[in-house]
Amino acid sequence: MPTRVHEFAWPDRVVVGTIGLPGARTFYLQVRAGTQIVSIAMEKQQSALLAEKIDEILDQLITVEGNPFSVPTGTPVELVDNDQLDAVQEQFRTGAMSLGWDPTTAQVVLEAYPITDVDADDNDASLDEDGANEPEMLLVRMPVGTARAFAKRTREIVGAGRPTCPLCGYPIDADGHICTLPEA
């Protein structure tokens, strides 16, 4: 069966945001072009790694002689986006992702695929009449400035969670934290 592709070639907005309080947040990658909005759920670690890898790609491209792709070293002020997520209707929960570079359009290319349930019962895995179990993916192409702004915002969102305990390295909950260290 064909895969339903949610494609955004030149998105108006592409951000990671959260819903919920630190310790119980759900991370979303949200992309918008005109009236089309797609939101996919992600793990915090996926969000952090995505930002890190986008920055690595951009930092590597800056080293190309003459910076032919006009990769900014920082986030262009006009591309800073600190707004909340638009209304979220989760399309799918992210499993595998791939990240690449398209030199013909000077864009970072992100592909995200839903988590697949390999243990699904044959009846559950069949395609519903309304196409509810139709395979799908998200394909986003980000210009270099947008990609840099995306990475910066994502790092800030990830870092805005619960503080880390200096003794054990685990998050400190709002209602307290008891750190138990092994006795010497």
Shape: globular
Determine the fraction of residues in helical runs and give it as a percent range.
Answer: 10-25%
State mean pLDDT (0 to 100 scale).
87
What is the terminal-to-terminal distance? 60 Å
Strand percentage lies at: 25-35%
Strand adjacency order, main sheet: 1-7-6-5-4-3-2
Unreliable segments of 5+ consecutive residues: 119-128
Gyration radius from CA atoms, angstroms: 19 Å
The major pleated sheet works out as: 7 strands, mixed
Quaternary state, please? Answer: single chain
The helix-strand sequence is EEEEHEEHEH
Q: Which structural class do the helices and strands define?
A: alpha/beta
| Number of strand segments | 7
In DSSP terms (H or I, runs of 4 or more residues), the helix count works out at 3
Word description of this protein:
The protein is an alpha/beta fold. The chain contains three helices and seven strands. The chain has helices spanning 44-62, 122-125, 144-159, and strands at residues 4-8, 13-19, 26-33, 36-42, 90-102, 107-114, 136-143. A seven-stranded mixed beta sheet has the order 1-7-6-5-4-3-2. Strand 2 and strand 3 (26-33) form a beta hairpin. Helix 1 (44-62) packs antiparallel against helix 3 (144-159). The longest helix is centred in the first third of the chain and has 19 residues, at 44-62. It starts with a strand and ends in a 25-residue tail after the last helix. The relative contact order is 0.23.
